[in-house]
Amino acid sequence: MTTWPAPLPVPPDAPAPLPEPARAELRLETVLGALSDPLRLTIVQRLLLGAQEYDHTCGWFGFDRPKSSLTHHFKALRAAGLIRQRQYGLERRSHVRVDDLEARFPGLLALVAAWTP
């Protein structure tokens, strides 16, 4: 049983996703390595529990961090296969790859959702 909302449908006008590993290429050690950083864990948790739209920009989180630092963290999450990002003009929007992660690592997202900082 999940503790987060069901994934939202992809809007018909959504751009193609940025390059990411395929579901079969997701590796547990890479995913856990990306989640080992508290900020990245917070990003994934907030997308799981607080997302009200399909994609969210970096500014939606309200982090007081330099843009270059946030870019690095989002890139690490995408490279690990935790989030999908799409380019909308000058901004990138993100959401968690719930279906892929649940298929590869059942229960992992429930642990992330239950995590207390």
Shape: globular
Supply the CATH architecture. Orthogonal Bundle
Structural class: alpha+beta
The beta-strand count equals 3
Order of helix and strand elements from N to C terminus: HHEHEEHH
Strand neighbour order, sheet with most strands = 1-3-2
Helix content: 40-55%
- Briefly, what CATH class? Mainly Alpha
CATH superfamily: Winged helix-like DNA-binding domain superfamily/Winged helix DNA-binding domain
**How many domains comprise the coordinates?**
1
Q: Major sheet: size, sense and barrel closure?
A: 3 strands, antiparallel
**Helix count, DSSP H or I runs of 4 or more residues:** 5
Beta-strand content: 5-15%
Describe what this molecule looks like in 3D:
The chain has a single domain (25-114), classed as Orthogonal Bundle (Arc Repressor Mutant, subunit A). The protein contains five helices and three strands, in the order ααβαββαα. It has helices at residues 28-35, 38-50, 67-80, 98-104, 108-114, and strands at residues 56-57, 83-88, 91-96. A hairpin with a 2-residue loop joins strand 2 (83-88) and strand 3 (91-96). Residues 1-20 are annotated as: Disordered. This is ArsR family transcriptional regulator.
Fold topology:
Elements: H1 28-35, H2 38-50, E1 56-57, H3 67-80, E2 83-88, E3 91-96, H4 98-104, H5 108-114
Helix pairs in contact: 2-3, 2-5
Brief characterization of the structure:
This is ArsR family transcriptional regulator. Helices cover 42% and strands 12% of the residues.
